[in-house]
Amino acid sequence: MAKARSYLYVIGEDGNSDEVKIGRSIDPVGRRSTLQVGRGRKLKVHGYWPVPFDDAVTLEAAAHAALHEVRVKGEVFAVSPELACAFVEHIAQHGAADDFLRLGLAKERAERRWGALSIAPSSGGRWAKPEMVAALEAAEAEMKRLDHEFFSMDRARADKIDSSRHWLDKLDEGCPA
User: Fold this and answer.
1) Which of 10, 23, 93, 114 lies most in the core, judged by the most C-beta atoms within 10 Å?
2) Burial class of residue 102 in the structure, from the number of CB atoms within 10 Å of its CB (0-12 exposed, 13-18 middle, 19+ buried)
3) DSSP output for 129-162
């Protein structure tokens, strides 16, 4: 008898919602149907990844822990579907999130904070409170710092991947590098 398989999934509203549910199920599409009952907006399965049945609970907990800073309630997180999928896929494959994904989360949070502050109520075209200007400037500086760090890490990761591909190509050719 074959061992049961489970999946980690990311489900969210179809469209531009930035809240997703991250969970586990043996049938993610069926789970979406169950969650759809009584909802006005259509739900979409953004992605799902197979995991060993015996590890599903642990891996789901790892995904929730990696995103704890953006937890809305229970298994719902305020994160883009794309970033949630990147986290969950990586955790399904490797068992934990890496620094690159954590930095992507911090960058997304800074962008949201900056966006929320930039549309804050104003009075006569001016900020209602001077501390809001300081908060906006701090969020913008943090966003720029994270952009730089993210780009640097992305470049280093790309270089590492290119180097690995070079070695794999040489191994495929059967000759030393």
Assistant:
1) 10
2) middle
3) -HHHHHHHHHHHHHHHHHHHHHHHHHHHHHHHHH
Same domain, 2 and 71: yes
Question: Which has the closest alpha carbon to 22: 97, 114, 134, 107?
Answer: 97
pLDDT digits (tens, 9 = 90+) for 21-69: 999 999 999 999 999 998 888 999 999 999 988 889 988 998 898 888 8
User: In a 10 Å sphere around its CB, with 0-12 CB exposed, 13-18 middle and 19+ buried, how is residue 11 labelled?
Assistant: buried
Q: Are 160 and 107 contained in the same domain?
A: yes
Q: How far is CA 77 from CA 10, 38, 177, in A?
A: 10, 20, 45
Whether the CB-CB separation of 106 and 112 falls below 8 Å is answered with: no
Q: Are residues 24 and 92 in the same domain?
A: yes
User: Among 76, 97, 118, which residue terminates a domain?
Assistant: 97
pLDDT tens digits for range 117-172: 555 554 444 545 666 667 667 766 776 776 676 666 666 655 554 554 444 444 44
Report the alpha-carbon distance of residue 153 to residue 53 in Å, rounded: 33
User: Could you tell me the residue range of the domain that residue 54 belongs to?
Assistant: 1-97
Query: pTM above the 0.70 mark?
Result: no
